[in-house]
Amino acid sequence: MNVTFSGVSKIFEPDIGALIDINLNISQGEFVYVIGQTGSGKSTLLRLITRELLPSRGTVTVGDFDLRRMRNADVPYYRRDVGLVAQDFKLIQSLTVYENIAFVMEAMSVPKEIVADRTRDVINQVGLWRRRGMHPAQLSGGEQQRVAIARALANSPSLFVADEPTGNLDFHTAAEVMKILFAINAAGVTVIMSTHNQAIVNSSRQRVIELEAGRLIRDEKGGSYTAR
Amino acid sequence: MTTFRYVLRDMWRLVFHHWVLGLLTLITAGVMLWILGITTLFSLNLENILSQLESELVVQAYLVKDSTIDVEQVADRIQNLEYVYAMRTFSPSESLAKLQQKMGSQSHTLDMIGDNPIPWNFEIHVNSAEDVEPLVSALKDMPEVDDVVYAGLVVRRISAMSRISSRVAWIMFVLSVIITALVVYNTIHISLYSRREEIGIMYLVGATRAFIAAPFVLEGTLLAFFGAVIAAGGIIAAYFPAITMIEVNMPLLHKILLNDNAVIWRFCVLLSGFGATLGWVCSYIVVARFIRSITRAG
Asked: Which of chain B's residues have a Cβ under 8 Å away from the Cβ of A54?
């Protein structure tokens, strides 16, 4: 899925410019790092893509969807094509690993047998089959993030949005998570990931979009990152 | 089918997660709906008694003793009054015969009066006690009518009782519905509030609002339905013994009171359906409002 920002600004009340006049285009199959200091607008940019936020000005287009004009009733159907991974994992604590992943398919009325097969596949893909009966609180941070990735993969999304997915993880675990994200991207899925982890950005030389105080200051293919 | 299974599973999870609250809701809904049911039955029985009394209310209108009056024409005019349910005309001789029959062995005293003093008269039945006063006043306005005889005090008392009983029944109905609705509303609101983070996550990963709402709405519907079933059980347990006791002590009320098993059972089924509908409406309102507020894009 292509992602296009045209003249996008996001102003929070009373007058805080989280994003100012952003123009960018991300093509199908790209891997993009969104970097910048805390408060630079990285999360706001990703939340505009997942339609948790609406732009104050400009338009955000993802595939055929104009997110500003989208009806509320269509939002869940759009989100089924967008895999989301967050720094705080956003797992349902009362459900087990298996149920957290099966849930997204149950919400789509996918037949029981397909739910079982697909859930097993994605849990295996992130290497957590033996942990399937556990609740999120019983897992380590890295394992919880892998569950979140597995859940995002369950619907075979065309776009993968990861908001600081390695933010709470040690270097070794973060590297494992990145390996999974690269594998997803290799399958043709667009991946947009925000981070302020210098080592991760510099180790893989992908497209880098840098934000500073809500403005896009760099959009470079194969870019590096030096934290200021 | 997968969705239906999920909704059921999640609904039970909700019920057991807040089981104390659920139990309290069940008991409160049960008690309030029991009061509602008993008040309704009491009111229905009172209505039966009152309508029985009303059907026995008679207004007697006596015409002026004047041979030029066209009795048939007067009868037609009275018959056309909106308060009249049924009417019978009595000639002076019929009236005298009736009086003689009533007096039995004392009827010979009537011979002392001489000529028959009773004029043409009408025995009028009304639809309800409230119609008596306006009918009497309409009759008194007719120049052909000499006198109107009716049980004024009884009529006023029956009218007042009928009005009070229907007001009390309405007040009890509204109170019971409001209290049950509030209890269900609060229980579901607490369920929703305790899972607000989960609801946000569900919406974020592609669950529709209807899918998220279904277990909560079902929980509210089920709690109110079982509350109503408990109330129905309580009504059946209390009503029949009470009716039997009343009929033993007041045999006159036999056949006037509602004592048909089928009717009472149907009433209980209706009450259960009413409880479920009330639960559904309340939980739908609270769930729709809550989910809309936390899934709105900023």
From this structure: 297-298
The pTM score is 0.72
Q: What is the DSSP string of B213-225?
A: HHHHHHHHHHHHH
Rounded to 5 degrees, φ, ψ at B80 are: -80, -5
Q: Which of A77, A93, A106 sits opposite B6 (nearest CB)?
A: A106
User: Tens digit of pLDDT for each residue in B80-91?
Assistant: 888 888 899 999
| Sheet of A3-12, strands arranged across | A16-26, A3-12, A57-62, A65-66
Environment class of residue B184 by beta-carbon count within 10 Å: exposed (0-12), middle (13-18) or buried (19+)? Answer: buried
Spell out which residues of chain A touch residue B201, defining contact as CB-CB under 8 Å.
90-92
- Do B156 and B144 touch, CB atoms closer than 8 A? no
Whole-angstrom CA distances from B115 to B55, B97, B112, B118, B252 are 34, 13, 9, 9, 41
B121 versus B16: which is more confidently predicted?
B121
pLDDT tens column, B143-159: 989 999 887 667 677 77
Domain ranges of chain B: 2-53+157-295, 58-150
Residue-level pLDDT at A34: 94
Beta carbons of A112 and B208 less than 8 Å apart: no
| Closest Cβ opposite residue A107 in set B195, B211, B296 | B211
A10 CB within 8 Å of a chain B CB = no
Give the gap in angstroms from C-alpha A75 to the nearest C-alpha of chain B.
8
> Cβ(B199)–Cβ(B286) under 8 Å?
no
CB contact under 8 A, B297 and A73: no
Task: Return the axis-axis angle of helices A141-153 and A112-125, rounded to nearest 10°.
Answer: 140
Interchain pair B3, A115: CB under 8 A: no
Residue that is written with structure tokens 């009966």 in the block: A133
- CATH topology for B58-150 is Alpha-Beta Plaits (3.30.70)
CB contact under 8 A, B297 and A52: yes
Average pLDDT (A186-196) is 92
Chain B nearest-CA residue for A91? B201
- Give B214 to chain A, closest Cα distance, Å: 11
Quote the CA–CA distance of B3 and A76 in Å, as a whole number: 15
**3-state SS class at A139:** coil
